[in-house]
Amino acid sequence: MRKLNRIFVFISIVAVLFSSCSNEKEIKGKNFVKIIESTENGVSENSVFTYNQNQLLSADNSKERIDYTYTDGLITKIVKYNKQTQLSVTLQYTYLDDKLVKITSSDHYVIYYTHENSETVLYEKFKIDTQNQEQMVHHGTLFFKNKNLIKVERTFDNVDEGVLSTSKTTYEYDTYNNPYCAILGYNQLLDNAALVSKNNVVLTVVETKVVNGEETIASANLYPTTYKYDADNYPTEQVSESSVGNSNYSKIQYLY
C-alpha cells in the first residue's frame, strides 16, 4: 500500500511538472526575428525584430525603425522613426486595470477606449488642432470573440452636414497561432486591428456606405489570405492576392 502511495505521489509530481512546462511554453510562445515582405513585382523589404525574452524591443528595416517601451508588462510607448524624412512619431498608451483606455499621438490625434465587457470596446478618435482642441474624426465599436477581433463598426464624423458615412470590417480566422500573439502586451494595442487577435485572418470583408439625402452609395470588398504553417502551428508564409488599401499581390515570410 505504501508503495502504491509513493507511486501515486511520483505520478502527481510529474504531472504537475509537465503541466507547468506546458503553461510556460504557452505563455512564452514563439517569436519571429525577421519578416520578409514581397510584392508581385519582386520588390522585397526585410524587417528585423529584437526582444528581451517575450518583450518586443524594436523592429527595423530600410525605411523605418520602431522602438517599444514597457511598463509593468504593458507597452506604454512606441516611437516610429522614418529614415527617409528623419521624422519620428511617438505613441503613448494609457491603461486602467491593465486595459487600454487612451492613445496619444505626437501626430496630433488621440483615441479613447471604453471597455463595455470582454467582447465589446467602444472608441472615439479625435484630431488635435493648432489650438489644442479635439475634433471628432470617427467613432465606433470593436467586437471580440474567442480572443479574436471579429468586427469593427465605424461612423465618420468629419463629413458634411446631412451626410452619414459608415464602414464595417469583419474578419474570419484560422485556428493557428497569430505570430504576434506571443509578444507580451501586443494584444492590448487596439489600434493594430486584427494583429491583436489570437489567430490569423483568412478573410477580411470591408463594407462602406455613404448616405446623402436620398442617394446611397454602398460597396463591399473581400480580401482573402492564405498561409503555410510550421510544426508548432505558426505561419511561415502569408499570401494575399489583395489587401486592404492595396490591390496588389503581397507575400510575408516569417523567420523564427
Please give a structural write-up.
The chain is mostly beta strands and 256 residues long. The chain folds into 2 domains: 1-28; 45-255, Porin, CATH 2.40.160. 11% of the residues lie in helices and 56% in strands. It is built from 1 helix and 16 strands. It has one helix at 2-28, and strands at residues 34-39, 44-52, 55-60, 64-71, 74-82, 87-96, 99-105, 109-117, 120-128, 134-145, 148-156, 163-173, 201-212, 215-229, 235-240, 250-255. The protein has a 16-stranded antiparallel barrel with strand order 1-2-3-4-5-6-7-8-9-10-11-12-13-14-15-16. Strand 13 (201-212) and strand 14 (215-229) form a beta hairpin. The chain is globular and about 55 Å long. The termini are far apart. It comes from Flavobacterium commune. This is DUF4595 domain-containing protein.
Fold blueprint:
Blueprint: H1 2-28, E1 34-39, E2 44-52, E3 55-60, E4 64-71, E5 74-82, E6 87-96, E7 99-105, E8 109-117, E9 120-128, E10 134-145, E11 148-156, E12 163-173, E13 201-212, E14 215-229, E15 235-240, E16 250-255
Antiparallel strand pairs: 1-2, 1-16, 2-3, 3-4, 4-5, 5-6, 6-7, 7-8, 8-9, 9-10, 10-11, 11-12, 12-13, 13-14, 14-15, 15-16
Summarize this structure as a short list of keywords or feature phrases.
256 residues; mainly beta; Porin; 2 domains; 16-stranded antiparallel β-barrel; 16 strands; globular; disordered N terminus
Summarize the structure.
The protein has one helix at residues 2-28; strands spanning 34-39, 44-52, 55-60, 64-71, 74-82, 87-96, 99-105, 109-117, 120-128, 134-145, 148-156, 163-173, 201-212, 215-229, 235-240, 250-255. The protein is mostly beta strands. Strands 1-2-3-4-5-6-7-8-9-10-11-12-13-14-15-16 form a 16-stranded antiparallel beta barrel.
